[in-house]
Amino acid sequence: MTRPYPDPFTTPDPQAVAGSRIMDFARHAGMDGADYTALHRWSVTDLEGFWGAVWEYFDIDADSPYERVLAAEVMPGATLNYAHHALRDLAADRPAIIALDETGSGYPVTGERLRSLVASVAATLRDLGVGKGDRVVGYLPNTPHAIVAFLAAASLGAVWSVCGQDYAPKAAADRFAQLEPAVLIGMRTAPLTLAAALSRTGG
Asked: What's the rounded Cα separation, in Å, for the pair 17 and 93?
């Protein structure tokens, strides 16, 4: 019989496996987490049971919760805030992000600091009139700045798009102009030609 998955190229330490989130979820759902094939089979054959267990395990805090997990053969619908769930359980004094550059040097961002930065940027976006469905774009490097801006936009229900500063300003402006963004977030070192190009395109 053909195995459904290829042989792994590495195997984690048994203690790390036992303490992993997926094992904890499996125990919560009454499944044997060590039998990954059975766990996967359950997730694709008992959709109502699986997604109901996911909802309960992660204690989803929805603005409009579902009435039934799967009323029809479609994914369940509910309204929730991603940023709220991403930030709510972070330990205040432990790293939520560890930023490293190409040289291997970097710095941590604690949960408390991340929440503070996101709240500050979100407040600024709100003052600028950003709300649900608005487009916010970032011309940012792959650093915590991009994560903070994304979470701030998401917390307001805004649509987020980003491209790195390895994009030429003209290329970034062409991409962003299609979205007609309400706000462009950039670093102080970002070329001013990007904002000018967006202005010319009406974005």
From this structure: 25
Helix (H, G, I), strand (E, B) or coil at 12: coil
Say if residue 83's pLDDT is above 60. yes
User: Are 74 and 99 contained in the same domain?
Assistant: no
Q: For position 77, what pLDDT does the model report?
A: 61
Q: Dihedral, CA atoms, 184, 190, 193, 199, nearest 10 degrees?
A: 10
Measured CA to CA, the distance from residue 135 to residue 137 in angstroms comes to 7
d(CA 100, CA 141): 12
188 and 144 belong to one structural domain: yes
Structure tokens at 20: 């992993």
The verdict on residue 90 lying in a domain is no
Let me know: does 62 contact 69? Beta carbons within 8 Å: no
Task: Say how many domains are in the chain.
Answer: 2
Range of the domain at 127: 95-201
Stretch (H or E) spanning 13: none
100 pLDDT tier (thresholds 50, 70, 90): confident
Mean pLDDT within 20-42: 88
pTM given for the model: 0.61
